[in-house]
Amino acid sequence: MSFNDISLTDDDPLFRETHYARYGYERTNIFGLVTLDSRLLTYMDRPDEFPSTRIDKLPVEPTPEYTQPFSKPVRHFIAASSSELTAFISRDGYWNCLNITLGLEAGKSEVIAIDAVESLVDDKISLFVALAVAEKSEEEESEDSSLSYSLRIYGNDRETKPFLEQALFALGDSSQIIPLLSPPMQISHVQINNDGKLQTAFLLTSMDGIIHMYAQSSEANQFVEMPSSTFFPMMGKISNHRTNILFMHILDQPNGKRVICAGGQNGELFLGFYNKDGKETKSHAIRIFSPITSVLVFQPRASNKTREDDELHLVVTCAIEQAIVYRSIDTDGLSTSKTLPLSGNFDSVLCSHVMDVDWDGEKEILIGTYGRQVLIYKQVSGTQVYTVLWKRQFAYPIYRMTHLDLNRDGLDELIVTTMYGVHIFQPNMKKAREKLLEVLQFVEASKRQKYELLIDYQRQKELEKSIVFEIN
């Protein structure tokens, strides 16, 4: 496929942009997007100027008629600009944008990374948001101005509020500031088993070459630093060699197993597997000729149920090379790889994502580049070859991507964050309708076939009963 060929994909888009939200006069960083799965109810109505309205303060609280949390979490997402957060809260038929200020001073503070997690312990829901922040310690004009760094953990450590909007606006009421000696990079969260108790922990990669772990104390909601090597031996090896990790991905599988992958500034790639008891069963490490900008472990089948024989693949994006797909990493480790064609043609690749964009049961690979391009790759059936299925050019570099059903209509929207804003894309509704009709026809044909087989079976049984055997 030539470069000119992929320009034709814009004429038949998989997605159509429905909304763009700019970060005011600020920008975001490459770790400025996080999804949040929450069981808390939502209550705010659709704004008059949907979807452009940004809500800066909490409206009058309703009188709750039903405050029991959802049994199944609903996905939302939060985008961080330099000094504030914008929470996109999903609702039936619409969404709300909440502008959450946490006391960070514009022009002096800068959010480097964000992570968010909701924990459920003893039927109590707690919401935690972690920010890695850089602050100017002197006046901007001073020649002696320098930066100080901190990890700020905001938590709903009071009585659990019944509504998510209330919990988000109350984040600033409780915070813990942990000073950092080196510039922080990415924040991830993980559940650990500490002395038989499940605890929420944040993992912070840093330019000191150490993966720092901060676990929630069992006595209070304060977080204390613990050696990550105690729970993850691979992280101990990384920290011992002072490897600057730029990006880390943790995949918790439904069967209780866990896979952790980390990519380094000098091209180091680490991969570790953990069993249901949290023990490391195997690990792999290689080096490639490029700083690694993101890693993503994924299961190629689009199914909520994981089977023991399901494969696992790994997408690695690089600053000066093409994106790489390592296949069957659970059995082959890092020995089998394929590059994504044309992925190196649009400057550095900064991020990757996977989702089933065409509803065929197989996940496609999405990458975003500093050259302002999003490309979607599909694996050719029966081969290990990937081709470009869709592309889109933006006004600014692509920092992160995710997907979720933001308006709860049954179809996932594609979320793309660039340097200066958030783009929301809706799936092609015409193709969605065609696919739905195709599935309904298949289901109807299957039901008809099963009914005909049942009728034939009943007729066969009746014939067997009518046979009379003569005994001589």
From TrEMBL:
<dbReference type="GO" id="GO:0051015">
    <property type="term" value="F:actin filament binding"/>
</dbReference>
<protein>
    <recommendedName>
        <fullName>Kaptin</fullName>
    </recommendedName>
</protein>
<dbReference type="GO" id="GO:1904262">
    <property type="term" value="P:negative regulation of TORC1 signaling"/>
</dbReference>
<dbReference type="GO" id="GO:0015629">
    <property type="term" value="C:actin cytoskeleton"/>
</dbReference>
<dbReference type="InterPro" id="IPR029982">
    <property type="entry name" value="Kptn"/>
</dbReference>
<dbReference type="GO" id="GO:0007015">
    <property type="term" value="P:actin filament organization"/>
</dbReference>
<dbReference type="InterPro" id="IPR036322">
    <property type="entry name" value="WD40_repeat_dom_sf"/>
</dbReference>
<dbReference type="GO" id="GO:0034198">
    <property type="term" value="P:cellular response to amino acid starvation"/>
</dbReference>
